[in-house]
């Protein structure tokens, strides 16, 4: 029976008690300012100093800022730091969330926002032959071991991923039996990444990645005045120098030694990249997302190198045992012989 003195219908006391018991309380976590730490702590956690993180925040703000301030939305600085922690550690998403006091889904969204935003700056920070003048690049390489006219060293590295589902799973199995993305990179003498191709499965050979790249097309058209240095897994071309397969004592041996010392820059770059961003040791994401993360880490590596952030100490890894390619072009052999004659005899 309704009460004439109460406009709203009465609620049974039992229903009120049940609602009170099962009510879900909102938990607003205390998110500390990620920049309120010493530089040494920030570099260890995020691989960037306070000034570097502020620079990235200002750079990426138009692409990652939240469209609302409701429910204590993440700030741009928090979003960037969450992604940097993941890139630096490569740990599980829930571990990043526990460290940054956010949920797993928020971590996933933050990482995706940041790596997609960094892809917009690929053409700004990854430029071939370099953001420096070509003559400066050549002088830097020549100072290493006396190898002339070099504008880049090139190689491929495998980034391990989890086995993708579907019928194309076998395409990602590399020669060592693991699943990976085969990534081609070029660097200058200062370990700046100047070109990156991150779209090929692990079963594809290095030489095929180069042949089908835009960089190869540009060299074939004569767009660049200089040469690349590669290992014996590539074919020797007029603009692409590789070692002698069976060098004679004397000039050819000195040529191979100078090429190896100069080409070690790309191995150092791979080591710095993977040591700075531990997520590249193994990515537990789908192949397309793995490629985006690799590109984002390459952009971040260049930003850190240009800003002179702390460089991780790495050891140059030995070359993989690739099957040599015996398809050297006559023009490539002639150019190699000229270099030996004029510089190593």
TrEMBL record:
Keywords for this protein: Cytoplasm, Hydrolase, Metal-binding, Nuclease, Nucleus
Any Gene Ontology CC annotation: cytoplasm
InterPro entries: HARBI1-like, HARBI1_animal, HARBI1_dom
Compartments where found: Cytoplasm; Nucleus
Function of the protein: Transposase-derived protein that may have nuclease activity. Does not have transposase activity.
Family: Belongs to the HARBI1 family.
This protein's name: Putative nuclease HARBI1
Pfam families: DDE_Tnp_4
Cofactor(s), names only, from the UniProt record: a divalent metal cation
The keyword Aminoacyl-tRNA synthetase is assigned to this record: no
Taxon lineage: Eukaryota, Metazoa, Chordata, Craniata, Vertebrata
Main location: cytoplasm
Ranges of residues in domain DDE Tnp4: 154-302
Annotated GO MF terms: hydrolase activity; metal ion binding; nuclease activity
């Amino acid at each position: 029976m309704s009460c004439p003195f109460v406009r709203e219908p009465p609620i049974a006391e039992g229903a009120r008690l049940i609602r009170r018991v099962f009510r879900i309380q909102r938990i607003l976590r205390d998110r500390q300012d990620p920049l309120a730490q010493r530089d040494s702590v920030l570099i260890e956690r995020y691989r960037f100093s306070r000034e570097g993180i502020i620079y990235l925040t200002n750079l990426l703000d138009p692409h990652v800022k939240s469209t609302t301030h409701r429910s204590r939305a993440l700030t741009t600085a928090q979003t960037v730091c969450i992604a940097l922690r993941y890139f630096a550690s490569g740990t599980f998403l829930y571990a990043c969330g526990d460290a940054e006091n956010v949920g797993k889904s928020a971590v996933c969204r933050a990482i995706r926002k940041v790596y997609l935003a960094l892809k917009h700056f690929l053409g700004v920070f990854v430029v071939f032959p370099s953001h420096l003048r070509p003559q400066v690049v050549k002088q830097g390489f020549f100072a290493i071991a006396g190898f002339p006219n070099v504008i880049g060293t090139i190689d491929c590295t495998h980034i391990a991923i989890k086995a993708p589902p579907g019928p194309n799973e076998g395409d990602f199995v590399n020669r060592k039996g693991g699943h990976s993305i085969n990534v081609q990179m070029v660097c200058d003498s200062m370990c700046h990444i100047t070109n990156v191709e991150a779209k090929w499965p692990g079963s594809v050979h290095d030489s095929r990645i180069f042949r089908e790249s835009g960089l190869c097309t540009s060299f074939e058209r004569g767009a660049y005045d200089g040469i690349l240095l590669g290992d014996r897994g590539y074919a020797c071309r007029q603009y692409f120098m590789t070692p002698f397969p069976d060098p004679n004592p004397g000039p050819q041996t000195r040529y191979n030694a100078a090429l190896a010392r100069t080409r070690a820059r790309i191995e150092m770059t791979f080591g710095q990249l993977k040591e700075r961003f531990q997520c590249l040791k193994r990515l537990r994401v789908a192949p397309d997302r793995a490629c985006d993360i690799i590109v984002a880490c390459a952009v971040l590596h260049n930003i850190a190198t240009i800003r002179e952030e702390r460089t991780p100490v790495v050891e140059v890894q030995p070359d993989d045992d690739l099957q040599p390619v015996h398809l050297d072009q006559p023009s490539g052999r002639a150019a190699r012989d000229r270099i030996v004659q004029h510089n190593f005899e």
